[in-house]
Every structure is written in structure tokens, then in C-alpha cells.
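Question: I have long wanted to understand how a fold can be written as C-alpha cells. Here is the record:
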Amino acid sequence: MKKIAFAAVAALSCLAAAPALAEDVTITLTGVQARGGQLMAALQTRDQFLQPAGDHGEIFRDPAAGTLTVTFRNVRPGDYSLSVLHDEDGDGQMKIEGGMPAEGWAMVNGASLRAAPTWDQVKFTVPATGATRLTVPMQYFR
């Protein structure tokens, strides 16, 4: 019986020491403009990057001007990109005019981008333990 009790205590202590399987990622979007439509935010893995897919996503209809906070729950540790589109016309796609985005958007390090982003420019890491908090400014060119 002592062997069973010892094995149970050892197994529980291993569980207590194990890293978290998923954490929350909170993104604070600054500079949101009240332009109607919907604001779509998604976390993407490397395989999903710049595709119409994401591991976690939220949609905010008719966002108000100012700051918007979105929390993605139970995000597994690893590298992700953040893709945000303020889809003003509701067609689910980024409108481009003259080679530039005609709708608001955001990515990590987005303000420094001068061309289409690469994964390495915009990725961030969700650690095995502890919540991730990022502040990301929206970009509007018109």
C-alpha cells in the first residue's frame, strides 16, 4: 500500500511541476477608428500566416474609436503572428488601393513595415507559463 501511495504522490507532484498547456494572450489595439464594418483579429501559426485561417479569432462589429482589448484564451505555447483587419465594407478581405491597404490593419511591429510582412518580422512567442500582453497600434492610411 505504501508503494501505491508513494507512486500517487510522485505522479501528482509531476503534474504540479509540469508547464501549463495553454495561456491567455491579451492584445490591446490602440488607435481604432470608428468606421463601421467589423474588426477581425486572429492569431496565426507559421503555417497559417497570411492565409484566411487562424488558431484563435474574434470579430467585433461596428468598433468604437479608441482602444479595443481582445483576449485569446487557452493559447498553446509557441510562435504566432497577429493579424487584424478593420473590414469596413464587410467583404472579409483587405481592400487595396494604389498598392496600399485601404482599410485599417494591425500586426506586431506593423508600424515599421514598408512592404508585405515576413513571418520573422511580425511573430511573437507565447511562453509555456504566464499570460502574454501586447499593445499594438492600428494602421490607417486613408
About this structure: Residues 1-18 have pLDDT under 50 and may be disordered. The domain at 21-137 is CATH 2.60.40 (Immunoglobulin-like). The first strand starts at residue 23 and ends at 32. The chain has one domain: 21-137.
